[in-house]
Amino acid sequence: MAPSTTVADPQPSSTTDSFNSNAAAENDIRPFFVLHKASSGSKPTATVKAKRRIESPSPKLAKKFEIESVDEEDGQFFSTLRLKVFETVWSKIENTIQDVLRDSNSKVFSGVHNWICESFESIRSSGALSLSEAVRSCPVLSQPSSKQLFTALVLTRNLEMVDDLSTFEDLGLHLKSQGCHVAKLSSMDFSAKNGVGGCLRGLLRQFVMPTIDVADVTILASWYRENGNQKNPVVIIVDDTERCCGSVLSDLILILSEWAVKVPIFLIMGVSTAHDAPRKILSANALQRLCASRFTLSSPAERMDAVLEAVFLKPCSGFTVSHKVALFMRSYFLCQDGTLTSFVKTLKIACLQHFSLEPLSIMLEHFCQDNQLPGEGTGLLTEATMKHAFDLPSVTRYPSEFTICYYFIRGHMLEELLVRNKITRSTCEMLPQFLLDLQRMPNPWSIVVLCIYEAGKFDKLRLLDIFCETLDPEARYLKYFAPSAILNSQSHVSGRNSVIRRVLRKLRDLSPAQLSSLLKSWESLTAEFSEINEKVMELHPFMRNVEAAGQRPGLPTSPKKHASRSHSKLEKELKAMTDKISAVIEFMLREYMKPVETVPFNEILCFKNVDKLQSALLGDPRGRIQSDLLESHSILNCLCCSQRGTTLLPSVHDTSIL
């Protein structure tokens, strides 16, 4: 029986109730309001609803709805899974980058700590002070040497401060782990408005008590002589000296130098341009109080090469980029601010774009796990993923190299699905094997790139330039390689500025010592890859001939004539050696220089959409607003507007644009 459509009339309310309801409505501040509501037309009755519930859909329509529901659930599941895999992959990349930067700075950090220890021992050897002497306001010693403030000038060679912030944070943590008392001041603390009192309050809050509001250096001296703090040195880090107010920094140096014996303070000043930068901002009296030592961090280009090698050329996450994306990232790094932070940001956006665009990117989680096929035992190789894998452009380009097929298991039956060519049962499990080959592929390629980089160091070539060129899948030397052709060509084979051409030309000018150093580095790089290592080991006899020709003693009867013969003999051996090295380079490029874009299924791990990356970094706000307005129905999820296509109804509120 259908439910009744009769609705009982509401009971009349009193005037007081009406007043209270109106007041409550005025005070009812909701977080949102309905701006656009679909017109319902004629109001449906309850009887009609009951009839529609009783009606059963046709079998075809029910099956269609069921398939769409399952596909939507699968899509949500894989989208969530891809986000989790992205977080895993990026965490691995980020940890690798942090380890590389920590290792690149470890030598300088150790040097700074050793300098602090040696200087601290020299101060303590002059004699310890009692508590009353330490907190006395007047200086204990009047000799000029007693007012020297030990200072470390750390040259960062960065144009922007963004990279230096993390560097000095790591330096402070390193010194704290060694037992030093560390406080860090930024250029904002050295403002003319706050004066030197603001700097002293900042130091006391970090050393003594966070809530202290007194600028009295005697409090620091009293704290240092109590509770056993005098056993360790006090370190003050100023991360950006060139942006500090010179007069405030000079005043702080003068005050701290008066207490140099009472409180052994070590000042670490970060400079980005040159070691003599403090001369331009400090007063003459402040400069006389500094006993400076110099330390130099690795350059941004050197750090970039180290990060590039660890992330892309050594086992890390499996994620990589295409030739065009690498060129854009290099251009963005060089033309924007030249900081490693900007490069890491670009890399993260590229990685995120890759996981949002490529469904099979979820397999990257298993690429760094040894002895496991990607997707094996995870349920990722479903019918849909197999079909998508064999429809990838890198697969359809080479139909003759392997059979295009995919499979799925339903119960205990293996069903083989024909896509393009006739297949056999033995070809059904080729996808996991292809993925495993793709997992192992970068190893010889990265070894070749690193070998070229070692040779390019003698010509001051950067790994970033070599990496971009060796990623090019259209490079002609990959198909038609000849060292003489590259040396004599201007632009037809590898380009006027080709790094391969520069490396081969530089080989002619290397000395025997440089050739020996190159041979040792190649031997170390190829130790785990026997095919290339054998070719490198064949160069040792030629290297011994070069060394013997250079060490041959002259004859006493005709020294000039014999010296000329010895020189010609050395040149002959050097030419034979460089020819052999060129032949080894030819062998490596011909056999193992296969960029990732030339192998099947490379879309799984290689990001190629340079337009998406450029739009995300450089931005196109006008075009983005226009496209969002044209697709507003998909953003608002409005049913009535979606039925009208991309045309908006007049009933849509203007604030919907926001």
From TrEMBL:
GO terms for molecular function: DNA replication origin binding. InterPro entries: ORC3 (IPR020795), ORC3_N (IPR045667). CDD domains: Orc3. Residues 36-363 form the Origin recognition complex subunit 3 N-terminal domain. It holds the Pfam family ORC3_N. Coiled coil: none annotated. Residues 1-23 are annotated as: Disordered. GO terms for biological process: DNA replication initiation. GO terms for cellular component: DNA replication preinitiation complex; nuclear origin of replication recognition complex; nuclear pre-replicative complex. PANTHER family: ORIGIN RECOGNITION COMPLEX SUBUNIT 3. This is Origin recognition complex subunit 3 N-terminal domain-containing protein. It comes from Brassica cretica.
